[in-house]
Design brief:
Length: about 190
């Protein structure tokens, strides 16, 4: 039987012809959005600027030519993963998790409130590292006990976000750079 470490790995995450990263990295910090307040269907005042720099999104290779890929530590527990950011000066050690609005972003680890994910094959079977013989894999992400991850646009923003959907999720490309990867804080873990 494999240990959690043996099913854990480090990989970059991408989409076809798109960079996946935090919006602040893809568009420049801060990545601002105009939030208009509505109450009962009626506009209730001036718009407010919101900083979405910590939220996960994507941008075309044509728009951003040279961009380092987002590197993530996929920490396995049973058949699901917690995703820890490894390639960002500000957010290294943060988890990719869902906010209250269902959008994915960089959030501090919050125990059982941290979103965990299942990796799905393209035929929607749950897989772990043991099922991935090659270092480049096409997978879908699914928030555990919830829905798959897809693209979303948000009013007041020119950005493409990643969020839960009722539809079939986006096919991501994983490029595994290290298998059997330990926590940074416990490099001697078995």
């Amino acid at each position: 039987m494999s240990t959690h470490r043996q099913k854990s790995f480090i990989a970059t995450l991408g989409l076809d012809y798109q960079h996946v990263d935090l919006l602040g990295e893809l568009h420049g910090t801060p990545a601002l959005r105009h939030d208009t307040l509505f109450s009962g269907g009626f506009y209730t005042g001036a718009s407010t600027l919101r900083d979405d720099s910590h939220l996960l999104g994507f941008r075309s290779f044509r728009e951003v030519r040279k961009h380092p890929p987002l590197t993530i530590y996929f920490r396995c527990t049973d058949d699901y993963y917690h995703l820890y950011i490894r390639s960002h000066a500000t957010y290294t050690g943060y988890c990719i998790s869902k906010g209250a609005d269902g959008l994915l972003g960089a959030f501090l680890p919050a125990g059982s409130d941290t979103t965990s994910f299942n990796l799905l094959s393209l035929d929607n079977r749950i897989i772990t590292l043991q099922d991935m013989a090659r270092d480049t894999q096409r997978v879908r992400l699914k928030a555990r006990n919830a829905r798959q991850i897809y693209a979303m646009r948000r009013g007041g923003a020119p950005y493409s976000y990643l969020a839960e959907t009722d539809n079939e999720g986006l096919p991501f490309t994983l490029r595994i750079t290290e298998r059997n990867a330990p926590f940074l804080s416990d490099p001697d873990e078995v």
